[in-house]
Amino acid sequence: MKKRILALLCSLVFLFAFFSMSGALASTKMYVYTSNGKTLNLRDYPSKDGNIIANIPYGAEVSVDTGFVGSSWSHVTYKNKTGYCMNRYLTSEKPGPKPTTSPTSSTTLYGKFTNCYYTASVRPSSPGGFVHLRWAPSKNQPVQRNYYNGDQFTVIAQNGTWCQVYDEVNNISGFMMSSFLVTVQ
Amino acid sequence: MRKILALIMALVLLSFASTALADAVKLTENASGFDLALELPEGATVDVETYGDVPYTFITYADETLPYIYISVAPTEEYEGVTLATFTTEELDVLFATVSADLDNSSYQMKKTAKGYDYMLVEDNSETDAAVMVLIYEGYIIQMTVWNSDFDVLTDADTSTAEALLDTLQIIEV
User: Fold this and answer.
1) CATH of segment(s) A114-183
2) Which of A56, B23, B116, B122 would disulfide-bridge B132, Cβ 3.0–4.6 Å?
């Protein structure tokens, strides 16, 4: 009897460990977002030299292997095809309609900020671009300095369009458009 | 491995470039399969910083009244296998919207460098002034950005300084 209970306990422990590991190697849902609304290449190797094995439409849901850590590439499954996509074209929130040809208009939203506290990194609109840190939350406000791909901040307030961020390295605070920030997991 | 060696070579070249009087200097080199060369004015220095695998080469003129400039070379999946010369007006408008997303009151015009490369010049016409020059080559976006100290309004002369530098750009297949 004791042996059976022991075997049952061992089985439970094994199952618990298995599901824990499955969780560690889990995948997460993400969506394709390209600034020109075109398809995203799925490649067989995490490099521009990799062969293209599928074209993933704008807005399509993909499964991202969270166990694969790459600074520029993610391990992705789309419709039973597995390969690699560039990180900058994946977003955790389902994107809206394809981008329009009109540039983003100026906004002057000073109110409705709510406090928050999380880390975000900069993702400029163009891959080798920059993002301005401004004195106030509007595109017509003066710029404090430029930030580049991957620079990190603490976001301390947000209103949907703008984030108030704190740069611990340079000890300055200002405002940046939320569309150029990606939450750091 | 060859790519890493190529990058190290580029950095070594750049370290020499920062001390020497400038001739034609390889400004940046990554896994792109091509090199870029610019003719730097005398006394100009360069400093390469990498952000998220994208090398940004910052160019500082000896004359402090001249603007700040950087040039970056970043892979893009959105513009694989296309050149600016074949873009439709709508495609140009989308590229402009992307490049100018953080600018206020901006406009663009299509131009060609002295060596014949097509580029889009995006100018911000507000007090938060900056200008961006974009080339697309073999699935890479080559972007030159110019701005003034303290983000003072760019004059036409400032933009011309950057465009004169871009005129010397040479893309060398490796």
Assistant:
1) 2.30.30.40
2) B122
Q: How far is B116 from chain A (nearest CA, A)?
A: 22
pTM recorded for the entire structure? 0.77
DSSP output for B84-114: GGG--HHHHHHHHHHHTTT-SSEEEEEEE-T
Residue A37, classed as helix, strand or coil, is coil
The token duo for A50 is 């990799």
**For A2-18, what is the mean pLDDT?**
60
- Chain B residues closer than 8 Å to A140 by CB: 104-105, 126-128
A152-175 pLDDT, tens digit each: 999 999 988 899 999 999 999 999
CATH of the domain at B18: 3.40.1000.10
* Extents of the domains making up chain A: 25-91, 114-183
Q: What percent of chain A has pLDDT over 90?
A: 46
Please state, in angstroms and rounded to a whole number, the distance separating the CA atoms of residues A66 and A63: 9
Closest Cα in chain B to A86: B77
What's the gap in Å between the CA of A25 and the closest CA on chain B?
24
